[in-house]
Each structure stands twice: as structure tokens, then as C-alpha cells.
């Protein structure tokens, strides 16, 4: 969904791509072998320790790769800085693999040289500099294909390129450019098409953060990279040059990344989310809701950001409804940020924004690949896809039980069904099941597949399985032989492991304890809830998670443990959820995980309000403005204070939990007032009249509000435990023993295989072969990646 073309300054960046799977991480192993004894360079995330991989041995005459980690460069070019040694400030000559590239470099105000080095070959490349005093320096970097992959492992197949201008099977094509502008007419919102040959007369002006006043004309770059589309927008003075080493003055060197909604998988190129909004608003949950349910609109902060001088970027692969694979999402952003830096200039900081599946993307990417963003703005929050999957699976099983009298031996009232689900009405489960269950169904007709090439257990067991589980097989790993179905045995390989489990879950336990359901209902429900098999067919037994997939889901960040979320600033806009499965509890689940991992949530603010899902009509723009002030304050902190402490120390005084009126006005600091007493479901202490916080079936069964115990540890069934106001009879206890022969969930203990996220994992080796479950990249190569953010943020600890 992203591509590499020709910039206005003029350079060809598309070349034929060979051996794309082999070049991916060559630089990682080369670096470890060459410079394993150098001093450690620690990423901000705490990724794997070890020697600095590549780069010069001295800062005197240092060569620095600005646009990315030197082992993750892609697209055949890199933005490079060269600092001459003392006494050799002029006359430097630069080369790439022995070929002169000196004309690409421009001397900067600090006496260094900066240039975009093009023509990299796949794999190892050497940039060299010779200085006027006779000294020299060289630096080894590794280049991966423009069409990817870089860290995510073997790519989905089959893959259809829908872009008509594609030049190869990786969907590469030269970038295309168009223009939009902001009108002086207040009745014309958003940005409108601009024709340079017939310029309109109502172009507004804007003054950027750095005090430059220019016409509010934005250039939109649309390209393809990593087999899919990207978009980059920025204020642009037409017919004036722009290069990374000499950007136009209105660029403030800040980046905003927009994200899409939902969670799914496609096998074809998609469309990157808008970066130049037309003022009509963005639907919050896309097309996944049933007909007749209104779709809230999200006010986009992009126009404000563009007017300030930001670049605004998006990629189709970070539209979660199109691609809900954490590693591929992160890879897409790594490559696209490199593109921004190489074509527009180095960055001071990056802010990510997103609602629903967009909030999912920014929160699990920020945790698993810290440093991609410096601040995030989640709205209608989802912490991740795979802890939430337990709620969706529970809903599906409960709906099947409640909806079919043949599955149960007792009657239920609708209010009792809702009590078991943890909500006031069952509509939340109905909407959820309609919207998202299909992404777990192997035969789902996902985009890019046909009836002929999709999976069928009997007629086409080797066909495409349209599940987010199978799309993430590099991360989750395949099922072991002892789990194989007949289809897997026929193929001789396992499908992707499933990291969701309901063994030992006592559905409805809290409702039983409060007396809103009877013990007979509780027993019948748990005896008949059952599960689903790998093809989501109903089965009478409970669902048992694949052990390796469960462990991999935690360590990869697919189940977000907030391990690295103290390294990022967060403002969460949280409105009430009127049964549209964007549950309010999730903002507090994220907070609970941050508290558990770090002992505080100093970097996390929740802004509540009465607008369903969105909190406040102006929350997106207000939180963006506040985040910009927060980032600017941290940027100025040159101390050696750890980043987590810098985020707390430099947080603006008004960036705290707050309650808004829906029209942009803050009513109070602190969460909205008014406790909401609720005796029938577990109620979070921060639940209130404006933003009530309901539970989930798993929380009703005893899980904490952190809601990330995908498989519980078991304890023996104990008759003295609380099973309601009336103790079980002997017959009832015998029934319970049959229902839970191996014990019941002990939610006082961590989940099975629950463990911290390992930051900056790769899912392929140096030859491009898959590493199931991933392995941590070595520390970032010395003197690389410093163009990603200002030094105060310590991204990659890239440059001394």
C-alpha cells in the first residue's frame, strides 16, 4: 500500500526487486558479526541488549544514518549525515560502494553534510567519506526491498495489486502528487481540490509553528511501499524545491499519523486513511455495523496539524480493518517514516491518532515497537485485538447458548442474559458478533480471495483461510501435530495457533453471587457453553488455547501488556458506549495494565464526555493541541533523566483526567462526577452517570478489569467458595464437579504464559525465512535512526 517514486527534486527510486525474502535482515547478522564488541546502543524500548551492530568506531568523522535503523533501511536509499573531524570542515568526498555520491550532500549550518544516498543494492552497502585532512570513515548499512518485508516475515499470498500503475508483483509504482487547499470561505470546511494551472482565488493563509506564513496549499503524495498504499501530506509552496537536506521553511519537522478502523484481513491492496480531510468527518466504525445503526463521525485533527506545519501520513496496512497484524502494521510505519524523513526532512516527534481499530493499532504498536510514536491519541479505545478476542468469543458462545433452547435445560430472562454478559442489555453482544466474529471464520469471503481459492475443509483444505489468526501465523506460530485436524494432516502442516481459551471459566459467577441468576442456571450455562474448533464450528468441549500461540501472543505484544507504554504520552478520549461494542471499560483496562507494569499511569490521561464513543466533538483537536504542547516540552529537556520521568516532569498542568460537556468545554478536572451504583454487574470504581463502565463475560466470571487473562490458571473446585446465597445441594455439587473436572479459574494469579512484551521483534531471519513467534532485534546500530525524533526522546539511543 505504499510506494517509492520520483520526488519533485528528481530521483528514480524504483528498481527491479530480486530475492526480496533474502535481503530483509542481512544487516542484523552482518552487524552482530562485524561489531559485536562495540559499546551498547540501547533502544528506548529496552529491546535486546548486545553490541552495537554497524557504524564507525569514533564520533570523529562520524557517519550517521538518519532515516532509520541502519539494519532496517528499505527502498534503495537512505538519508545520511557526515560530521567531518576537526580541521577538515570542507572538501569531503562521499561514496557508496565505491561510487562517488558527493553531489547528493549539502553542508548544513553546523558544518555537517547531509545527503540522500540513492542506488543502494539489496543487502549490505558501505557509505564512505574522505576528508581534507586525509582521514576517512565508512559505515555499513543493510537495504531491504521496497516491496518488503523488513521484519514481518513471509508475506500473505496470494496478493492482488489493484493499483493500475504497478510496475511489478510487489505493487511498486512511482508516486503520484495532487494538491488541496483551505478556503477563506468559512462555509467551506476541510480541504478542497486545488489545480495549479487554474488556482482558485479563495486560498487562505496559515502561519506555522515556526512562524512562517504561507498559502494553505497542501501537496498529497500517494505511493506504494511494502505492497500497499501510503499517503503523505504537507504544506507546499508550489514550484519551489524541497529536499530532506533543504526542506521548505514551513515544515515544522513534526509528523501526525492517521489510522483506520475495524480489524480484519484482506489479500489485496487497500486505500490508506485520509490525510487531507474534506470536512465531512470520518466514520468511527466503518461498514461493520448492522444496517440501521448510526455511525458516529470523528472530527479529524489533520487540518489543524497541516496548518501548523506538520506532515500527515497514513498507510493502508495500518488500517486495521484491512490488516490487523501487528508486525506488518509496525513494518509499514517503519518504512513510511523512513520515506517521510528521506523526502521531507528529519523529525522532532511523531503523534499517532486513531479510533476503534485505529486506537488498537497505535496502542499495540507503541508497546511492541516503542519509538515509532512519541505520543498517541486513542479514541473509542481497544488495547489490542487478542485480549478483546476473549470477549468476542465469549459473546459468540453465550449468544449460541441463549439463542437455542435445545442448547440449554433452563429458561432465562433477557435481563439475566445481560447480567452474565456484564452489560445492561444484550445488544452489545449482538452488535459485536455481527461486526467482528467473521474475522475468526476461515471461510469468510475476505477481499482478494475467490470462492475457488478460499479454504474449504473438504474440497480445498490448502485454500486461503480468511482469519486474522491465520494472517498472523508468523507471530502466533502453527499448531502442533497433536492438535491437527484432518485438513492439517492432509496438508502436513498446522494452521495458526489460537491464543484464546475458556477452560475453567465460571460464566455468570458474579451474577450468581449477587442473586440475579440461580445456581441451576449457572450450572446449565457452564455445562452447555462449549466452544468452537479451529474452523469455528461449535463443539461441546471448551476452547483450549494453543500453548505456543498463547505465549507468543503475550511476548509479541498481540496481547498488549503495556510493558513499554511508560515510554509514550497518551491522551484517551472516552465517551459512553450505547451498546456499540466500543466499551468504556477498555480505556481503564489499558490504565490497569500500565499501573501493573509501571506502578503509575503518570503518562496516561482520560478525557471523558457525553458524546457516544467520542467523548466530545472537539476532543480529537483539543487533545492533539495538548499533546503537541506536551511533546514540545519534553523535546526541550536535555537532561539524562529517563524518558518515562521526562514525560511526567514535562507534562502540562492541564493534561490530566478531565470531563467535557460535548461541545469542547472542560467541565472539571478529574473524571466525570456522579457514581453509578450497579448491583448486578461488577462496576469499575470510576464508572459514572456520563460514562458508565460495564463489564465483560470474563470479568463477570472473576477476571480483573485489566481483562488480559486469555487462559487462566486453575484451582480445585471448592465447595466453600461463594456460590450464591444458598449453598449447592449434593446433587448440584456433583453436577459442578462434572462441569469442571480439572478445576476453575484462579484469577488471583497471572494468566497461563502471561509475560512482558519483548520490544522490537523480527519474524524472519537473514535469509527471509520465518521465525515463528519472533526474536528480538539486536540493539540499534550505533549512529542510526536519529532522524526519527529529537534527542530528548532517545529513540534507538541512536547518536552520541
Task: Characterise this structure.
With 800 residues, the chain is an alpha+beta fold. Among the domains are: 26-151 and 767-797, Sandwich (Immunoglobulin-like); 388-498 and 502-554 and 704-745, no CATH class. 22% of the residues lie in helices and 17% in strands. The protein is built from 18 helices and 31 strands. The strands form eight sheets. It has a twelve-stranded mixed β-sheet with strand order 11-10-14-15-19-16-20-21-24-25-26-27, with helices on both faces.
Highlighted features:
800 residues; alpha+beta; Immunoglobulin-like; 12-stranded mixed β-sheet; 5-stranded mixed β-sheet; 31 strands; 22% helix; globular; disordered N terminus
Please give a quick description of this structure.
This protein has 800 residues and is of the alpha+beta class. The strands form 8 sheets. It has a 12-stranded mixed beta sheet, sandwiched between helices. Strands 2-9-8-4-5 form a 5-stranded mixed beta sheet, with helices on one face. α3 packs across α4 (357-368), α5 (388-403) packs across α7 (427-436) and α12 (519-528) runs parallel beside α18 (730-739).
What structural category do the secondary elements indicate? alpha+beta
Q: What about the largest sheet?
A: 12 strands, mixed
Counting copies of identical and different chains, the oligomeric state is single chain
Runs in which pLDDT lies below 50 for 5 or more consecutive residues are 1-59
Proportion in helices: 10-25%
**What average pLDDT do the residues reach?**
90
Q: What's the tally of helices?
A: 18
Q: Name the shape in a single word.
A: globular
Strand order of the largest sheet: 11-10-14-15-19-16-20-21-24-25-26-27
Amino acid at each position: 500500500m505504499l510506494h517509492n517514486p520520483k520526488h519533485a527534486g528528481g530521483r528514480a527510486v524504483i528498481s527491479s526487486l530480486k530475492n526480496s525474502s533474502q535481503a530483509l535482515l542481512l544487516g542484523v547478522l552482518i552487524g552482530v558479526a562485524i561489531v559485536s564488541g562495540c559499546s551498547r546502543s540501547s533502544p528506548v524500548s529496552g529491546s535486546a541488549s548486545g553490541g552495537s551492530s554497524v557504524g564507525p568506531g569514533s564520533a570523529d568523522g562520524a557517519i550517521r544514518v538518519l532515516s532509520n535503523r541502519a539494519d532496517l533501511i528499505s527502498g534503495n536509499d537512505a538519508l545520511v549525515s557526515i560530521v567531518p573531524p576537526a580541521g577538515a570542515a570542507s572538501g569531503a568526498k562521499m561514496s557508496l560502494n565505491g561510487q562517488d555520491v558527493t553531489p547528493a550532500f549539502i553542508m548544513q549550518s553546523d558544518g555537517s553534510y547531509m545527503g540522500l544516498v540513492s542506488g543502494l543494492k539489496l543487502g549490505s552497502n558501505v557509505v564512505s567519506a574522505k576528508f581534507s585532512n586525509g582521514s576517512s570513515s565508512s559505515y555499513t548499512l543493510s537495504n531491504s526491498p521496497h516491496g518488503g518485508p523488513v521484519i514481518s516475515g513471509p508475506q500473505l499470498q496470494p496478493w492482488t495489486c489493484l493499483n493500475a500503475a504497478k510496475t511489478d508483483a510487489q505493487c511498486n509504482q512511482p508516486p503520484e502528487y495532487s494538491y488541496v487547499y483551505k478556503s477563506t470561505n468559512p462555509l467551506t470546511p476541510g480541504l478542497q481540490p486545488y489545480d495549479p494551472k487554474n488556482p482558485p482565488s479563495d486560498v487562505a493563509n496559515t502561519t506555522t509553528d515556526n512562524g512562517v506564513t504561507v498559502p494553505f496549499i497542501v501537496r498529497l503524495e500517494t505511493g506504494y511501499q511494502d505492497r500497499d498504499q501510503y499517503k503523505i501530506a504537507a504544506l507546499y509552496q508550489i514550484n519551489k524545491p524541497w529536499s530532506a537536506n533543504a526542506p521548505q521553511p514551513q515544515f515544522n519537522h513534526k509528523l501526525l499519523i492517521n489510522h483506520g478502523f475495524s480489524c480484519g484481513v484482506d489479500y489485496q491492496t487497500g486505500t490508506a486513511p485520509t490525510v487531507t480531510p474534506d470536512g465531512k468527518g470520518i466514520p468511527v466504525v466503518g461498514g461493520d455495523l448492522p444496517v440501521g445503526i448510526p455511525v458516529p463521525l470523528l472530527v479529524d485533527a489533520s487540518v489543524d496539524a497541516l496548518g501548523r506545519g506538520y506532515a500527515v501520513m497514513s498507510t493502508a496496512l495500518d488500517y486495521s480493518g484491512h490488516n490487523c497484524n501487528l508486525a506488518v502494521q509496525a513494518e509499514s510505519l517503519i518504512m513510511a517514516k523512513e520515506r517521510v524523513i528521506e523526502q521531507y526532512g528529519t523529525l522532532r516527534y511523531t503523534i499517532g491518532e486513531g479510533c476503534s481499530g485505529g486506537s488498537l493499532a497505535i496502542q499495540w504498536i507503541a508497546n511492541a515497537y516503542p519509538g515509532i510514536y512519541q505520543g498517541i491519541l486513542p479514541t473509542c479505545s481497544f488495547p489490542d485485538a487478542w485480549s478483546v478476542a476473549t470477549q468476542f468469543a465469549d459473546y459468540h458462545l453465550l449468544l449460541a447458548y441463549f439463542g437455542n433452547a435445545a442448547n440449554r435445560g433452563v429458561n432465562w430472562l433477557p435481563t439475566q442474559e445481560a447480567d452474565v454478559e456484564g452489560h445492561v442489555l444484550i445488544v452489545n453482544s449482538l452488535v459485536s458478533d455481527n461486526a467482528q466474529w467473521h474475522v475468526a471464520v476461515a471461510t469468510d469471503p475476505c477481499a482478494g480471495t475467490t470462492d475457488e481459492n478460499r479454504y474449504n475443509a473438504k474440497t480445498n483444505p490448502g485454500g486461503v483461510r480468511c482469519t486474522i489468526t491465520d494472517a498472523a501465523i508468523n507471530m502466533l506460530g502453527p499448531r502442533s501435530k497433536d492438535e491437527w485436524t484432518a485438513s492439517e494432516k492432509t496438508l502436513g502442516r498446522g494452521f495458526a495457533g489460537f491464543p484464546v481459551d475458556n477452560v475453567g471459566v465460571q460464566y455468570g459467577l458474579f451474577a450468581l453471587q449477587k442473586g440475579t441468576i440461580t445456581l441451576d442456571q449457572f450450572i446449565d450455562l457452564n455445562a452447555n457453553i462449549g466452544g468452537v474448533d479451529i474452523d469455528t464450528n461449535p463443539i461441546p468441549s471448551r476452547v483450549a488455547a494453543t500453548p505456543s500461540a498463547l505465549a507468543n501472543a503475550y511476548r509479541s505484544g498481540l496481547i498488549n501488556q503495556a510493558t513499554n507504554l511508560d515510554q509514550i504520552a497518551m491522551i484517551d478520549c472516552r465517551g459512553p458506549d450505547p451498546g456499540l461494542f466500543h466499551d468504556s471499560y477498555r480505556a481503564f483496562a489499558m490504565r490497569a495494565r500500565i499501573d501493573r507494569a509501571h506502578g503509575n499511569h503518570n503518562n496516561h490521561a482520560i478525557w471523558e464526555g457525553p458524546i457516544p464513543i467520542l467523548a466530545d466533538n472537539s476532543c480529537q483537536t483539543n487533545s492533539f493541541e495538548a499533546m503537541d504542547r506536551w511533546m514540545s516540552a519534553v523535546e526541550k529537556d536535555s537532561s539524562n533523566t529517563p524518558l518515562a520521568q521526562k514525560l511526567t516532569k514535562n507534562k502540562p498542568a492541564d493534561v490530566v483526567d478531565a470531563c467535557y460537556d460535548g461541545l469542547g468545554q472542560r467541565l472539571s478536572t478529574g473524571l466525570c462526577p456522579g457514581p453509578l451504583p450497579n448491583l448486578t454487574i461488577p462496576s469499575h470504581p470510576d464508572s459514572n452517570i456520563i460514562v458508565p463502565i460495564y463489564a465483560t463475560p470474563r470479568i463477570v466470571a472473576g477476571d480483573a478489569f485489566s481483562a488480559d487473562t486469555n487462559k487462566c490458571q486453575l484451582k480445585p473446585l471448592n465447595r466453600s467458595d461463594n456460590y450464591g446465597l444458598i449453598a449447592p445441594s449434593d446433587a448440584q455439587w456433583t453436577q459442578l464437579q462434572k462441569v469442571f473436572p480439572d478445576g476453575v479459574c484462579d484469577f488471583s494469579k497471572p494468566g497461563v504464559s502471561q509475560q512482558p512484551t519483548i520490544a522490537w521483534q523480527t519474524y524472519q531471519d537473514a535469509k527471509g525465512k520465518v521465525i515463528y513467534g519472533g526474536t528480538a532485534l539486536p540493539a540499534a546500530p550505533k549512529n542510526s535512526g536519529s532522524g526519527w525524533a529529537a534527542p530528548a526522546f532517545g529513540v534507538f539511543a541512536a547518536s552520541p
